[in-house]
Amino acid sequence: MSVVHVVVPDGIDDPLHPSGGNAYDRRICRELAALGWTVREHRVAPSGLARALASVPDHGVVLLDGLVADEAVLPETSRLRIVVLLHMPVGDHRELAILSAAAAVVTTSDWARDRVPGGRATVAAPGSDLAPLATGSSSGVELLCVGAVVRAKGQDVLLEALGMITHLDWRCTFVGALDLDPGYVEELRGQLTERVSFTGALTGSPLKAAFATADLVVSLSRRESYGMSVIEALARGVPVVTTDVGGLPEAVGSAPDGSRPGLLFPADDAQALAAHIEHWLIDPRLRQELRRSAAGRRERLTSWVETARQVAGVLSDAHLGR
Fold first, then answer.
1. What is the average pLDDT value for the chain, to the nearest integer?
2. Which SS3 state, helix, strand or coil, does residue 21 take?
3. Are 228 and 20 contacting, i.e. CB atoms less than 8 angstroms apart?
4. Is the pTM of this model over 0.85?
5. How far, in Å, are 13, 66, 126, 145 from residue 16 at the CA level?
6. Highest mean pLDDT of the ranges 56-65, 134-143, 190-199
């Protein structure tokens, strides 16, 4: 039986600060075990990587979350077979050195793979768990935005856009941790109305319920490798409006008939976002078309088992020294 040492951030299971990267890591650990791998998990805090790698036996296979990768990797690459799981490319010299020294690299999107020098990366896109189709309201007024409330996630753009369409009926729920960027959160509070609510971080059943009752999911990231909230929405047949950055267009994808289950707009363009949401709210035919497309895209989503198999293939090659 093959053994993999998975090195993950110390806060991987923190319910107050859930993240797409942590959810991916946790699910991959679970699915690799189901595929027959012996998974030995190492949780590391900042500056703890060297100690974790030192505990791995010679020739051990390591799946290392890129979020905790640092220069401690470099002296260990001759002893260990290190596969870096790169959630979000940074592109600096330190990252380049780490990726070049690693045995292999796994990314979560084609967009991220194309930013790894030398064509050495393999894509293992996030999987999904299909959920019952959301029925949606006839008027489409329930908007949902999921992500930590930090400037990179762009909630300010949505609030600005909603301020342009106050003549229409809508309600917007923001789900995500509120304590990571207090200054930014304070800025947003000045734009709040009775039609906007911030729930804080949600996980498990409450998060599933938020997606199940949404008509439209809005993703506003200024930088994103893939977009787990987009996949969560599409797994329920809920259309999306999202920025056209990074791997988000990949996550939106297309239905079997070629239609797109969402609308894209440039990051930071509140006017374009307002136009999309207004079109959604006033045009029943658009809502019907996007919902039909989202239901079709739902059937084409990757399963977590398939994602884990792709990762396992890379780990097996590393184990055999290929």
1. 96
2. helix
3. yes
4. yes
5. 9, 21, 22, 17
6. 56-65
